[in-house]
C-alpha cells in the first residue's frame, strides 16, 4: 500500500525537479525528502529517478507514478472534502469557480439571492476557465464550477467524469461593433455580410467558435488581434480595429458608450453549465446555491 505522504513528496519532487527545491516548497530538510523517496522506491521495488547533473529525470516507473499518483491525490482530496461536508451535514462556505463573464453577471445575481435567503452563507470566488476549473473541482479546491462550451465543441469526458452537470443557459452570439459602423442599427445581420471585416478574437476556445461560425458562413475571418480580456476586446472594437463575435453574457457589462451590438443570423451559441459532485448536492446550502444559479441564469 502506497503512503499518501510519500506520494505528496514524490509529486512535489517530480514537479520541481530536485530534492532541494521540493524541500523548500514543503518546508522540510533535503535529507527528509531523500529519506521519503528511498522508502517509496523500496515500496515500489525500483528506482523512480535518474540523476542528470544537478537535476533529476523520472524513470518510466517514475513517470507512470507521477501521472497516476497525482490523479490519486486529487481524488483523495476531493473525496475528503465531500465526506467532511456530508459528515457535518452542512458547509458554511461555498467555493465557486467561474469563467470571467459569469463572474461579473451570473455569480453576482446568485450571490444577491443567497445573501437574502441564506445570510449565514459565505462565498469564495475563483476565476478560471475549463479544463483548469474542472481540475480545481477534482482536487477539492472548489465546490462548484461554472463552465461553458460552444456548439459542436467536443467535451473532455475524462475531465468531468463522475461530476453532476446542471445546464444553466444557452446564449446566442452577437456581433460587437463600434457605433457608426456600416452594420450598426440593423435588427439582424448574416455573418457573411461581415466577411471583409477585420476581427478581434477572444480566448482559444472562443477563437475556435469564431472560426467554425465563419466557416459555416463560407469564409475565413481575418483575425488581427486576440485576447482573453473582455474589456480589452471592447476597447479594441471601440478603437475601430475590428469587430467581434461575443456571447450574450458579455453584453451585460459593456463599458464603452462607443459600442453597439447586432443580432447574428447564425446557429453559433455558447452553453453555460454548473458542475459539482453528486453527493454535495444533498447539502442544503449547496442545493440553495444551485437553485440561486439557476434563477440567476433566467435573468442573465
TrEMBL record:
It comes from the Bacteria. Keywords: DNA-binding, Transcription, Transcription regulation. Residues 2-59 form the HTH lysR-type domain. Gene3D superfamilies: Periplasmic binding protein-like II, Winged helix-like DNA-binding domain superfamily/Winged helix DNA-binding domain. SUPFAM superfamilies: Periplasmic binding protein-like II (SSF53850), Winged helix' DNA-binding domain (SSF46785). One of its GO terms (cellular component) is protein-DNA complex. GO terms for molecular function: DNA binding; DNA-binding transcription factor activity. It holds the Pfam family LysR_substrate. PANTHER family: LYSR SUBSTRATE-BINDING, TRANSCRIPTIONAL DUAL REGULATOR HCAR-RELATED. Belongs to the LysR transcriptional regulatory family. This is LysR family transcriptional regulator. It comes from Lentzea aerocolonigenes (Lechevalieria aerocolonigenes).
